[in-house]
Structures are given as structure tokens and as C-alpha cells.
Design goal:
DHBP synthase; five-stranded parallel beta sheet; ATP binding; Rossmann fold; Threonylcarbamoyl-AMP synthase; alpha/beta; EC 2.7.7.87
């Protein structure tokens, strides 16, 4: 397959390029495009054959549901049986933005989108290019992350090109995604609502709007054994993983640093190439040539924005094991630790 790359400036969107990409969607093709969270791989959500191409291009398991992206709140009514009152409040508070809501679906939504479930996950992205594409296509667009399934999600068009060039029709190069972790997913079918995947909207922000929100047990620990169909993307046991083995070290910062340095020496004695993921406040504890800072613990949004890119950079090296410091799990830290835990397969050392 020939893949076309369309470079579009999000501050000066080329309407002709958007029209072309929208036409590809309308005709059943695949378009990778930037969102504020990560890059998405889009197809007409109402075209089963087009959606099948997403699974083939990504190598994605069919039991992993997709998120449907729409242009505005009023578009949701065509896809769901009802919009719960609390869902309305969340839409008003956070859309457009990195929040996905799971609701009972109408029959118009193909089962392939929902992994056979009676619910569908929907969001309105805030990225100008994503919104322009959806509005021009005048269709709901199903779009998981634009990467090979299981690999770190793409936060830059280069990541998409590395994974999917020759497998999709169009890749829109819109620069970097600014949030760096996927959208928050909340199940609105249950009451109180349940957080299925932490992301760009924090648990604290959700509860400020609708009160109590339960947390799915799989966010903090592995709980899917392959027999349970996940209600949200990203709920599988191993996900977001670089080629290297990831080991998380959790505890008081000084003890974490001591443990990581001990583990590094042990690996080096066995000729295992290692890397260290630290923060601006802790990078001085480690050998400079082995260490990457993800950002500041005082500004965890920087850590979220850099995590997947750091994993991708390690994939270009011969590093075999990555030791990563845990961060505080409040706010967006819950999403950061969820992605780290999934990437590590819950390989966590507590000190």
C-alpha cells in the first residue's frame, strides 16, 4: 500500500489537505492523525470493512474495543441509547478534550467497534486537526492509537511513520501531541461511574463534577486473564511496552535511587545493557550516560508528555532493561503509573 504523508500546521490548517484526508475516510480508507493525547488511526466508524482494516494494520486483538471520535456533543445521540445525566455534566465540563465516555450503544454502531459489547466509547477531541477532519468527513471516526498493537503509543508523526508506513493510506504530520497519554475512559453505564483508564482528565477533576467515581481494579493491578472482554482500550495486561524489559522501582526517593544503582551494577556485571528513567529532581543520583529525565515531579504533566517518547527512543538502542522510578499517583500521576505498570507487565520492586 502507498502511504501519503500530509504535513499540516495546526495553527494554519490547510483545508484542501483536510478535505483530501476526509475523502479517504469517507471511501473506507485509513488516516492517521494527531490528537491532543496521542496520534490516532482513523476509519469510518459505521463501515465495518473499514474498521477491520484498523485491526489488520495494527495487529490489534479483536477483543480490544475502539474509541469513536465525534465532532460535538449533539453527535453522540446518534450512537447511544441514552445519555446519563452525569455523562451530560462531564461532556459540558471536559469536551472537547481528553475524556472518553462509555454508554449503551445503538445498533448502528458495528459490533467490531465494541468487541461485541453493548456499550460504545465516545469522545470529542480538542486537537484542531482532529476536529477539522471529523467535521469535514461528517462521520464518526473510530480511532485507536496509531501504532503497532502493544508498542508505546505514538506522540509524534515519526512514531506513526515508523510503525504504519505502507499499512495505511494517509498519515497527517501535525507535530507532537501535547498531553502524551491517552484519554481518560469512564464507564457511565454503572452508578457510580467507573474509571476504566486514567488519562488526561484526572480522577480528582471527574469527582469535582459528578461526585464519587469508582476505580476499576485493573488500573492498579493486572486483572484480565484473557477470558474477560475489556470495556476500554488499554485494559489488557501488557501494553504500551518498549522492546526492553521494564522494571519499576517504587518507594522513598533515596531508597529507590539506591536500589536502582544496585540493580544497574548487577546487570552490568552480566553484560546486560541498561537504561534509567528518572526525573529532573533525581537524575543526579545515577550515571549520566544511562539516564533519561522524563520531566519534573513538580510538573507531572511533563512526565506524561515524555513517557512514550522515551520508550520509543530506547527502542532505537541496544538497551535490554529499563529501570524506571515510580511517581506519585495523584492527579495525572495515576495515568503515568498505569502506563508504566502496563509497559512493565506489573514488574514492580517496592523498597
Amino acid at each position: 500500500m502507498k502511504t501519503e504523508i500530509l504535513k499540516i500546521d495546526l495553527h494554519n490548517i490547510d483545508s484542501q489537505k483536510i478535505k483530501y484526508a476526509a475523502q479517504v475516510i469517507e471511501e473506507g480508507g485509513l488516516v492517521a492523525f494527531p490528537t491532543e493525547t496521542v496520534y490516532g488511526l482513523g476509519a469510518n466508524a459505521l463501515n465495518k470493512t473499514a474498521v477491520e482494516k484498523i485491526f489488520k494494520a495494527k495487529g490489534r486483538p479483536s477483543d480490544n474495543p475502539l474509541i469513536v471520535h465525534v465532532a460535538d456533543k449533539k453527535s453522540v445521540g446518534n450512537l447511544v441509547l441514552r445519555i446519563p445525566e452525569k455523562a451530560e455534566k462531564l461532556m459540558d465540563a471536559f469536551w472537547p478534550g481528553p475524556l472518553t465516555l462509555v454508554m449503551d450503544k445503538q445498533s448502528i454502531v458495528p459490533d467490531i467497534i465494541t468487541a461485541g459489547l453493548d456499550t460504545v466509547a465516545i469522545r470529542v477531541p480538542s486537537h484542531p486537526i482532529a476536529l477539522a477532519l471529523i467535521r469535514e468527513a461528517k462521520l464518526p471516526i473510530a480511532a485507536p492509537s496509531a501504532n503497532i498493537s502493544g508498542k508505546p503509543s505514538p506522540t509524534d508523526s515519526k512514531h506513526v511513520i515508523n510503525d504504519l508506513y505502507g499499512k495505511v493510506d494517509v498519515i497527517i504530520d501535525g507535530g507532537f501531541s501535547n498531553i502524551g497519554v491517552e484519554s481518560t475512559v469512564v464507564d457511565m453505564v454503572v452508578d457510580p461511574p467507573m474509571l476504566l483508564r486514567p488519562g488526561g482528565i484526572t480522577l480528582e477533576q471527574l469527582e469535582d463534577v459528578i461526585g464519587n467515581v469508582r476505580i476499576d481494579p485493573g488500573i492498579a493491578q493486572k486483572n484480565l486473564d484473557g477470558k474477560v472482554v475489556p470495556k476500554s482500550p488499554g485494559m489488557k495486561y501488557k501494553h504500551y511496552a518498549p522492546k526492553a524489559k521494564v522494571v519499576i522501582v517504587e518507594g522513598e526517593i533515596q531508597k529507590v535511587a539506591e536500589k536502582i544503582n544496585e540493580l544497574v551494577k548487577e546487570c552490568e556485571s552480566r553484560d546486560i545493557k541498561v537504561g534509567i528513567l528518572a526525573t529532573d529532581e533525581t537524575k543526579h543520583f545515577y550515571p549520566e550516560n544511562l539516564t533519561v529525565s522524563l520531566g519534573s515531579r513538580l510538573n507531572p504533566e511533563t512526565i506524561a508528555a515524555n513517557l512514550f517518547n522515551a520508550f520509543r527512543d530506547y527502542d532505537k538502542t541496544d538497551v535490554q532493561t529499563i529501570f524506571a522510578e515510580a511517581v506519585d499517583s495523584s492527579g495525572i500521576g495515576l495515568a503515568i503509573m498505569n502506563r508504566m505498570n502496563k509497559a512493565a507487565g506489573y514488574n514492580i520492586i517496592k523498597v
